[in-house]
Amino acid sequence: MAYPLIQREKPDIIITDIRMPFMDGLELSQLIRNELPESKIIILSGHEEFSYAQKALKLGIAEYILKPVSGAELVASVKSVAERIKREREEKHYTRDESNGKSRLFEAIISGALPIAKILDRGRQLNIELSARFFQIILFKYYFNTSAGPGYAEDILALNERINQISAKAGNVILFDRLLDGTAAIIKEDSFERLAAARQAYINSIESVFSEYETLRYFGGIGKPVERLTLLPESFENAARAFSARFVSDRNAFIDDSEIDFMGKQGGVYPSADAPRTQENEPIEQRNNHYHLMIQRAKEYIAAHYADEDISLSDVARFVNISPSYFSALFSRETGQSLIRCLTEYRVNKAKELLRSSDMSASEIGAAVGYKDPHYFSYIFKKTQNCSPMQYRASQKHM
Predict the structure, then answer these.
(1) pLDDT in tens, 6-15
(2) How far apart are CA 62 and CA 42, in angstroms?
(3) Whole domain around residue 355: which residue ranges?
(4) Which of 47, 69, 91 is the last residue before a domain boundary?
(5) What's the CA gap between 112 and 134, in Å, rounded?
(6) What is the pLDDT of residues 51-110, one digit of tens each?
(7) Does residue 49 lie within any of the structural domains?
């Protein structure tokens, strides 16, 4: 009777005796562990034999209490287990928040949409130190080339943990989980020579671990080294282009974009599971028209959402229904510029329109086109137009 009730109610804490009709407490505990692994079990037992306690420990029992037990002792045990549940849930919530925070931080870094001060501040909130002189992005993905079977999940989790340990031990690597798009690593160092050495050491360490798994498949794209954090979007675009070669390559490798001839494959774009769905025998001209329409949709999305400070590559890729890595390479190939550059150009052109046609202040115009920080807006405007917003406005009045 107890087990169906437990299945229905899904309690956080279950108190059971070793001796019960139909099945004993250890058998019930085994069923509960399989069905409700998060639930905590307290076993009451009159057996002092070590074998019973040993079996209970193997099942992950929260408390093994010998009878007789007073009401006060039992209440104290329940409170102790309840505190443990509370701590575990808080830790899990923190881990989930941290993971989401890291994902948003990576998007902010590669989008170039936030000022450097905000990016550094977000990094510090996540205990991520982003200060360095040189940076480089590596995108990679790995999976077992076998159908999931017994032990598959455990192997993946163990492998993920080993990659995390390698990254943490390196000290100059920041790892980001990109879910279906794989993993991104930012390598940072204080000189170009040390960056090159750190990158190669990191790749060697990862490939050494990968080589231990016979059925493991992996591929990585290496971005170009850049001298400032603000230039990491360029390294990402570079890495994404190299990473796209995984769609036509059947080898395990980390490559940079100098190793691929991007324009010579299937009309210039690599077909893939992540690519937009087209007919396999579709003529190249028709397929390219399909890509052209996709780019148009992406530009329409930018036109509708450019004022959103947090608009990202992933947002646009999600809108056109392909992976960010593939979309990044496709957009660069079709337009001759990165999505970030296209977004910046659109925002600056909108700002120029407002400078000519309104009496809004520079900070108000910056906020209206997606730059909430007025200093960053002025920096972007001057970088692209070789003059400040106010200088541009003054020049237009004399025309």
Answers:
(1) 888 889 998 8
(2) 6
(3) 343-397
(4) 69
(5) 17
(6) 666 777 777 788 888 888 888 888 888 998 888 888 777 666 544 555 677 888 888 888
(7) yes
